[in-house]
Design a protein that fits this description.
The complex is a heterodimer of chains A (about 475) and B (about 90). Chain A has about 475 residues and is an alpha/beta fold. Chain A has 16 helices and eleven strands. In chain A, helix 4 links the parallel strand 2 and strand 3. The chains are: A alpha/beta (about 475), B mainly alpha (about 90).
Chain lengths: ~475, ~90
């Protein structure tokens, strides 16, 4: 049995049956990481000693009958989630040596269950971007090392896809869980805004950021999500909603369920690759065969999605990243005599080009001369997206869209053309803008064998239904794993 | 976006650029602004009151004094002395 290929539920079962120990399992993942990750670069920091220690403690709990759902399960954590005493770099030179003095709330939750953290997963600098290439590590796509894994949770997706962990926790601001999951052939779930505490998640755009999960399938995503949701006194935007089992609807019939198919997402004028379009529409037909009803609908404001997203997220990023000053923590420049010079030089030396572009854009749209034309208009469009989605959900249960316009592109193609990357986010960003939950799951492969993903968008707090639908498809889908060792 | 605007924004952003970088960022920002400019086509008005029902009220915690993080931990990632962050003398 190759233990690293197992799903989280299977591992849970076998750990509880004592088929192998958490230490043996953790060692198997660490061995595989040593073999593959030198080239794949899905991890930015590998916490070997901590992982083996946590595994020993978890095994004691299991042996003493004190097991819990994630006890002894090895996972990766995106490197923008603070871990007490362990470097949290956000993929940025500005936080190269930053060691948080506290845990994010979700880390405390996972630790209390006996989770085993294998390491911190790579990301785009400050989670801004969709290629997972930064000055420390350039993550590859497990299906083809010459291609990007997507991002910004590209390390999370690649580590799950390459079986270098059982599951992963990342964050999603404009598609950062779903897009890399789609490009790496795994399942990514962004829950409703406010479901999971953001305390200890380094902020990019606070009104859009949400922590979520990546795993080998939808059921595993639900399993992980069950362990991290809930209100937190340290995050006033985390909601006091009743907690439910997100896997509770799995296995229920989808007969009669109404699935909306908004035509703009499939419009070739918006840049969708015909192979991707056909594959996702074939998946829609599969749902029809299972008894669901497909409903054609329209989201006319989609053409403004990327601009709305860029304006809102950059404005918030410019404000959030002003805390990076080189004084309280992070890279401090040795150049400059005055306080102002040190701050300016520290930021100039610490941030990469993409982060600088977004900060400039954010300050542009917030400046008094431009505010009404850009930022206020984007706020108005956010209201329109919320209203448009509410209207669609009056007539249907979920919405089915492609997750990306095309499959993974080459690593070198991406670096020179930032503007194309922005436009590629058109399929994912409206979910974040409207604070909705969505899940991306593989639904096919292109002619080069690269994975294609589809997204199922749900009503607020109706994660259970999108998980149910993703699971129903996955059960009839022959997933192809990347050809690694 | 012209060089004057980029210089203005870089001051607001507390970032410095060399002349060559200014040129490059000016081009990059022009293509970015071209994307966000599409928003100007929309005839739409922002209704701040409507956000009250779209955005949840902050669920604030009770105002109870609690022990905060130890100063020693807060200073761990900074140049510090005598329980303070160290910065150059500021006289204005």
């Amino acid at each position: 049995m190759n233990v690293t290929n197992l799903k989280i539920r299977e591992i849970r079962d076998l750990l509880d049956k004592k088929s192998f120990s958490s230490v043996e399992l953790t060692q198997a993942y660490l061995d595989r990481i040593k073999k593959i990750d030198g080239e794949l670069q899905s991890y930015i920091t590998i916490t070997e000693d901590l992982a083996l220690n946590s595994a020993k403690n978890a095994q004691n709990k299991i042996d003493n009958g004190n097991s819990s759902p994630l006890c002894g399960i090895p996972i990766s954590i995106k490197d923008n989630i603070c871990t007490d005493g362990i470097k949290t770099t956000c993929g940025s030179k500005s936080l190269e040596n930053f060691v948080p003095p506290y845990n994010a709330t979700i880390i405390d939750k996972l630790n209390s269950q006996g989770m085993v953290m294998l390491g911190k997963a790579n990301l785009d600098e400050f989670a801004i971007g969709s290629t997972t290439q930064n000055i420390f590590a350039k993550t590859k796509n497990p299906y083809d090392f010459s291609k990007v894994p997507g991002g910004s949770s590209g390390g999370c997706a690649a580590s799950v896809s390459a079986s270098l962990c059982a599951g992963s926790i990342g964050s999603d601001t404009g598609g950062s869980l779903r897009q890399p999951a789609s490009l790496c052939g795994v399942t990514g779930l962004r829950p409703t805004y406010g479901s999971v505490s953001r305390y200890g998640l380094v902020a990019f755009a606070s009104s859009l950021d949400q922590i979520g999960t990546i795993a080998k399938d939808a059921h595993d995503c639900a399993f992980l999500l069950n362990s991290i949701v809930g209100h937190d006194d340290n995050d006033a935007t985390s909601l006091k909603a009743k907690t439910i089992d997100f896997a509770s609807k799995i296995g229920e019939s989808i007969k009669g369920m109404k699935i909306a198919v908004p035509k703009e997402f499939y419009d070739e004028n918006n840049g969708i690759n015909p192979e991707v379009k056909d594959t996702v529409l074939n998946a829609a037909e599969k749902y029809k065969e299972m008894g669901a009803e497909l409903i054609e609908c329209s989201l006319p404001s989609l053409k403004y999605a990327v601009s709305t997203y860029l304006i809102l997220s950059s404005a918030e990023a410019a404000s959030n990243l002003s805390r990076i000053d080189g004084i309280k923590y992070g890279h401090r420049s040795t150049k400059g005599e005055t306080f102002g010079d040190i701050v300016r030089n520290s930021r100039t030396e610490g941030f990469g080009d993409e982060v600088k572009r977004r900060i400039l854009l954010g300050n542009f749209v917030l400046s008094s001369e431009q505010y009404n034309d850009y930022y206020e208009r984007a706020l108005a469009l956010r209201q329109r997206f919320i209203a448009d989605y509410a209207e669609i959900f009056e007539k249907c249960d979920v919405i089915l869209t492609p997750t990306t316009l095309s499959t993974a592109t080459g690593i070198s193609e991406n670096i020179m053309t930032p503007s194309n990357i922005y436009l590629d986010n058109i399929c994912t960003v409206t979910v974040d803008i409207a604070s909705l939950p969505a899940i991306s799951t593989p639904c096919g492969y292109d002619s080069n064998g690269m994975p294609i993903g589809m997204s199922i968008i749900g009503k607020k707090f109706d994660e259970a239904t999108i998980i149910q639908l993703a699971d129903a498809f996955e059960k009839s889908f022959d997933a192809i794993s990347p050809k690694l060792i | 976006m012209d060089l004057k605007m980029i210089s203005h924004l870089s001051n607001l952003s507390k970032l410095s650029f060399t002349d060559d970088e200014l040129e490059k960022f000016s081009n990059d920002m022009s293509s970015l602004v071209k994307i966000v400019d599409t928003i100007k086509e929309v005839d739409i008005e922002y209704n701040p009151i409507a956000d009250n029902k779209n955005i949840y009220f902050n669920d604030l915690r009770e105002d109870i004094a609690k022990e905060s993080m130890a100063t020693e931990n807060i200073l761990k990632n900074a140049i510090n002395s005598d329980n303070c962050f160290v910065v150059p003398k500021v006289v204005e």
